[in-house]
Structures are given as structure tokens and as C-alpha cells.
Amino acid sequence: MHTRVLRSVRTVHSEQRFDLVLRQGQIAAIEKSGTAAGDEIINCSGQYVSSGWIDMHVHAMDTYQPYGDDADKIGVSQGVTTILDAGSCGADHMEELYRLSRTAETRLLALLNISRIGLGLRQDELSRAEWIDQQLAVETAARYSGFIVGLKARISRSVVKEEGIIPLNAALRISEQVHLPLMVHIGSGPPGINEVLNGLRERDIVTHYLHGKANNILDDKNELIPDLKSAIRRGVHLDVGHGTASFSFRVAEIAKDCGVHPDTISSDIYRGNRLNGPVHSLADVMTKFMVIGYTLAEVIDRVTIRAADWLGRPELGRIQVGDEANLTLFEVVPESRTMIDSNGDTRLAESVIQPKGAIIGGNFYSS
């Protein structure tokens, strides 16, 4: 019976180091640092351990262009054990994504795009009413229950074109019928951001909420719009979804100063912005939030505990004896690095978050 020991790790919530003992793919024991015996000892004296990182907004259909990538290149190879594909596929192609989830090393879950065509053929998938088939969406959500954990609607001008708010209303109806929450992408209007936010309910997600384009969460006085505050009071979930064009340091800093913080930090990563920036990895996005003043613990909580809570899978956000091993090892490395947002604005990081490995069950994946 193979026993792996993570020697002398610590969490972000305590300076106390300990040995984490893994056996048969489970967390078998938590012991005093330096005392645990095992077949394989991994020296983690300079590292942190957390429950496995969760990226709540990725695009993992590897054949799609431009919004696609290999699940494991944006997952376990970057220290991320769970990824949520944010609407790459509608009903017409969900089977393909499901099959990918069965072969990927990374745990892959999905949001169903309410447009049956998804993002494979074109990127204005909500611009024609006939592409929204409510009954087909309901049947697809039922067929892939457990894999599909919510719905996705991209409600910005380039996607909906002349349809305006109509696709959002359709998405809300489907959501009510399938009893799953809705993630809404916001961007350039119309529809106006107020109109979008006012339709969202508790547990619905607004992603890209820190984008720097017009139609964002700030008014002309650089104050938060009242509709955002109302949405937060209703329990609407704020997700970063950095992406190529959807994260602004300036907007994020103003929101932080006003006491509005992300519920989850996610990347909106796909092949182009992984290789060419400005995203590169979930760890880089996390580092940007440290640059603007969030603590390491606040950042880690937003890719672990808070994401797991939204998924309704608390076991993915904890380290507990008896649970399946679901862990990320990482360091915070002193390094001056220029970080770039989606508008080309820069901030200087004095230290960066660097994944060292991911563990799912009995498998270790080095970063």
C-alpha cells in the first residue's frame, strides 16, 4: 500500500508546518512536521498546500478556435485540479465536451451555453432566436446532470447584436426550468449593464465584472453603480473571468476601495491568452490580486473554499482526513514582474504565486 508524505507543508491560514500523509488516493493523516513515514517523501518545506485550485471560467474544447484549449494544459499542469468550462458548448456539442471530461486528468465540469450552437462555429451565438431551443436545453441539462452545473449566456453587443436583452430573458426561463444557476458574461452594450444586473438572482454569476470597457460597474464619477450593489445584496456572485479583454487594474482597485470584492477569481483562459497573454495562467491572475492589495489567504480562498461552495461540493475546498486527495502545492516567490491587464495597463509585482504540483487521488502532476 503506497504511502506518499508531503513533508513540512503549511496552509495560508497558519504558520504551523505539518506532514500530510496520502494513502490509496485519500488523505490518511495529518501529523507533526518531520515525523510521518512513507514510501515516497516529498520535501515541501518551502511550499504551501491548499485544497485543489478551482478555475470557475475556462474554455476547454481543444478543437475550438479561438476559444479553446487542452483541459490539462490549463488544469493540472498549472496546479488547477478543477476547471469549469464556461459555455463553450451548447446542446449540439455537449457530448463532445463530456467525452473530453472522461479522458482528462483534470476534473472538468461544464456550464451549458443556452445557444445550441455554442462557440465552435461563430461568436455571435445569441444573435438569432432560433439558436435558443429551450426544450433542447432542458433535455441536455438533464442528460448530463452532475456534469452540467449551470447555464451560460454571453450578454454583450457583439454576441446578441440586435436581440438585446431577449436572450437573457430566455436564459432566466431555462434556468428556472432546470433549477440551475446562470453565469452571465457582461461587456460592451447594449444591453446596458443595469438591465443585465437587474435580472440576476441569488447564486447567479456575473463574470467579467471588472472589465474596463464602457458599460462597466463604474459611473461617470468613478463610483460603483447602484445596480451592482443591489445585485450583491440579492446574492449575485461576482466572478473575475480575466480573459483577453475583461480585466482592468483600475476598475479592480476602485471596486476594492469601495468594499466590493470578487467571490471567485477565474482566468477565462484559452489557447491564445495562455500563450500570448495577458492571462497565461490562473496563478498569474491570482498574483494580480495580490498586487492590488489582497492577502495571499484572501486570494487562495477565492480559488478554493468559495468556488467549492458555489459548486455545492465543499469537499473540493477543504483538507480533511478521509477525503479524496485534491490538493495544490505552490510557492510565493520573491520576484519583480510586470503584470499586464486587458487594457495594457501595468503594475509591478514584488512576489508571484507559482504552482509546484497538483494531486488528484493517487496521481501527482508536477507544474
Short note summarizing the structure:
The chain is of the alpha/beta class and 367 residues long.
Secondary-structure map:
Elements: E1 3-9, E2 18-23, E3 26-32, E4 40-43, E5 48-51, E6 53-58, E7 80-86, H1 94-103, E8 107-113, H2 134-143, E9 148-155, H3 157-160, H4 166-178, E10 182-186, H5 193-197, E11 205-207, H6 226-234, E12 237-239, H7 249-257, H8 271-275, H9 282-291, H10 296-301, H11 305-311, E13 326-340, E14 346-360, E15 363-366
Parallel strand pairs: 1-4, 6-7, 7-8, 8-9, 9-10, 10-11, 11-12
Antiparallel strand pairs: 1-2, 2-3, 5-13, 13-14, 14-15
Could you characterize what this model shows?
This protein is of the alpha/beta class and 367 residues long. It has eleven helices and 15 strands. The radius of gyration is 20 Å and the shape is globular.
The ordered H/E elements are: EEEEEEEHEHEHHEHEHEHHHHHEEE
Major sheet size, sense and barrel closure: 7 strands, parallel
Oligomer designation = single chain
Sequence of strands across the biggest β-sheet: 6-7-8-9-10-11-12
Strand content bin: 25-35%
Overall mean pLDDT: 98
* Distance from first to last alpha carbon: 26 Å
Rg from alpha-carbon coordinates: 20 Å
Taken from the alpha-carbon principal axes, the silhouette is: globular
Overall SS class: alpha/beta
Number of H- or I-type helical stretches: 11
Strand tally: 15
Low-confidence segments, given as residue ranges, are: none
Q: How much helix is in the residues?
A: 10-25%
InterPro entries: Deacetylase_Atu3266-like, EF_0837-like, Metal-dep_hydrolase_composite, Metal_Hydrolase
Organism: Paenibacillus provencensis
Pfam family, one: EF_0837-like_N
EC number: 3.5.2.3
